[in-house]
Amino acid sequence: MIINKSEWISFLRQYGPIPRNDNMYDEAIHRIIKRKKMKPIIIESVYLSELIENFKSNNPKSVILTGTAGDGKTFNCREVWLELGGQVDVWQNEEKIKELVLSNLKKLYVIKDLSELKDEERGILKLFINSVLNPDASNVFLVAANDGQLIEAWKHVESDLQTDRVRNCIEQMLVSEIQEICGFNLKLYNLSRISSAILFPKLVDVVLEHPGWNDCNNCVLRVDDQTDKKCPIWENRKRLEGNGDEKLIRSRVTDLLELCELNGVHLPIRQLLLLVSNMLLGHPEAKDRLMSCSDAMKIVNDNKTSLASIYRNILGENLTERRRESTDVFSTLGRFGIGYETSNTIDNILIFGEDDPDLSSYYQQLVLDDTYYGADPTFRANQKDYLEGVMDSGELFLTSLRSQRQRLFFVIPKDKEEELKLWQLTTFQYAGEFLTNVYRIAAKSDRVSTQISSRISQGLNRIFTGLLAKNNNELILATSGSHSQAKVSRIFEESVSVPRKRGESMQIKINDFGKLVIEVRLSPSIPPVELVLQLGRYEFLSRVAEGALPGSFSRECYEDILGFKSKLLKQLELRRKLEEDTSDESDDLSFRITRLNQDGLIDDKIVEVNYNE
């Protein structure tokens, strides 16, 4: 049997997690493209047109591009250079600083990697400082650097008043996440602020629509519908593409990536390219664990296609554990525990669904209807041996079961998500609610439901007091007699209304910096206190409200919430000073002790101490 050997598949394979993936680096990609005459994988850059327009204007500003490795800094610099009339051979030479006269007669200096400058070359930064402080300067700059490199570079520049002004300006822009500061002829673009959840669907479209797939048109593993010998690479492509509006795989992966961003983890485009390549080509028995066309033929003939499952590849299951943990995207997605977490309903469907009348319809739809990666011969054989009690079958079946749980997470229809409790297949059981009913609601400036706010306030109260309180319409601020972070706080300080009341409130919202926060107001006259609400903290507070012990779930989240309480207590002190009334002085000392009543609600008892001098 003859198959086509596709140059496109070989090219795409280079983006995956292989020992030498030159396509990961912009400097190498054009050499490969030129040699193989391959159309590059390019998605529209968010800021590119804005950058080009800036340098073409009569009064251009210098620009710094920053972000993590793989965010596309070099790509943007090159595209700007070429669009402004720069030559390809000049860009590819060994010079670290490129020079180009613009149409507005200003000279553009491009530093595509600030860290590559040698000590004797760093004198160019004095010219950069002048261009930032003087809008009429004859020079402008385009500088690419990681955040750390950007700060480190100034340590090698002789300090003076002008240098300090520019350095402080850049540091303020980085910390405040702003693009411009009035009085400085400079813009800073942080490419790490571009969400991977926005980039991923665009990248998938570019890969799936690449003309290189035409190489597969006449391949026997694609066109022979009379046999079951179908190419797993093409099967993965079809599944990633989806049918009509049903694009569940990319939708679920996008949700996971958005949750990662909300949890403070950014994945650059380099890692997204790696992910897409692995999704399509991953197989644990292929060379470098990524399929070529020759590998695909052997895998089909050996009946090992189930191991090429796109659902396993999303999580890097084709890789060794060490390689998976050392690859950012798979290490990050692995924290969701998909396949390792489950529910009784899901496991009953997978194990007993064929024989259980109540589950048979689910089994048919979710398992039997997918003969390629669902009810494939390997899973059916392992299931049969397990149910019949064949010795040593347990480990094989549990491995198959984990793969099927992973597949179900990406194929359970949206109208069955609630019924089958989709997110119980992950470590973060409240992740779906957090994304859909909290973040996306708050992003539209709508009010998060009272039910959710009440649960979060109840979780906060249980941590603030150390008691299994049921209070959910007020926040109970308590201490152990001081402002220490004691596990149990019995001295009642104050209660703060959750619904808006006399200037007090607690709400979940997007703040002025675009962050999702819990905002607590103690008074109209003092600033509110905010806690950034990440996925981990939301899961923690929800689990605590449902009865989990704070210290046993997440020590880090527990300490974060206690730190939030300390900030609230400081603001409470400020409010008391502003409202202080000294007209009724007394020698009596009293304090209030918190306790739980029979309904599980916190009330307090006043204890008075009389003393005489």
Architecture overview:
There is one protein chain. 45% of the residues lie in helices and 12% in strands. The protein has 613 residues and is α/β, with parallel strands linked by helices. The strands form 3 sheets. A 5-stranded mixed beta sheet has the order 2-3-4-1-5, with helices on both faces. Helix 9 runs antiparallel to helix 12 and helix 9 packs across helix 13. The radius of gyration is 30 Å and the shape is flat. The termini are far apart.
Summarize the structure.
By secondary structure, this protein is of the alpha/beta class. The protein is 45% helix and 12% strand. The strands form 3 sheets. The chain has a 5-stranded mixed sheet with strand order 2-3-4-1-5, sandwiched between helices. A 4-stranded antiparallel sheet has the order 6-7-11-12. Strands 8-9-10 form a 3-stranded antiparallel sheet.
Indicate the topology.
Blueprint: H1 7-13, H2 26-36, H3 48-56, E1 62-66, H4 73-83, H5 88-92, E2 97-101, E3 107-111, H6 124-133, E4 139-144, H7 147-153, H8 161-176, E5 186-190, H9 196-208, H10 220-223, H11 232-241, H12 248-262, H13 269-281, H14 293-301, H15 310-313, H16 321-326, H17 328-334, H18 344-352, H19 360-368, H20 377-387, H21 394-411, H22 417-420, H23 431-443, H24 450-465, E6 474-479, E7 491-497, E8 505-510, E9 516-521, E10 529-532, H25 535-545, H26 550-553, H27 555-578, E11 588-596, E12 602-610
Helix pairs in contact: 9-12, 9-13, 20-21, 24-25
